[in-house]
Amino acid sequence: MMLWSAFTALPCISNSIVMQKAWHWRTVVDWLASEGRIPPDSPLIDNAHILDSMNLALQLRSSLEKGTVMHYLHQLEHKSTASSP
After folding, report:
1. Where exactly are the structural domains of the chain?
2. Whole-model pTM?
3. From the centroid of its chain, how far is CA 17?
């Protein structure tokens, strides 16, 4: 039986590939809190947000396009401060 991936339009063979979505821990923790499965003041929430930021920093550090990304970040920050009252 063939299943089509909604993201790649390439067929996946269901009996040999486990179809999973990779979830970010921050997304999972935010969902758990919104569903009332963990308290809204749980330290897991702050920890997940910090971990998400650290992962983003590590991805940026290892990117070959770091200079380009930093250029756009600077432009976006400059634009948002210029348009602030």
Report:
1. 24-82
2. 0.57
3. 23
How far lies 9's CA from each of 5, 6, 16, 54, in Å? 5, 6, 18, 32
DSSP class of residue 4 equals E
5 contact partners, CB below 8 Å, separation of at least 6: 11, 12, 19
User: CB within 8 A of 60, min separation 6: which ones?
Assistant: 66, 69, 70
Give 10-residue mean pLDDT values along the chain (85 residues): 42 53 88 95 96 91 85 86 60
Q: What is the pLDDT of residue 60?
A: 85
Amino acid at 75: Q
pLDDT, position 45: 97
Name the residue among 81, 53, 79, 57 with its Cα closest to residue 69: 57
The whole-number pLDDT of residue 17 equals 53
What is the phi/psi pair of residue 2, to 5°? Answer: -105, 135
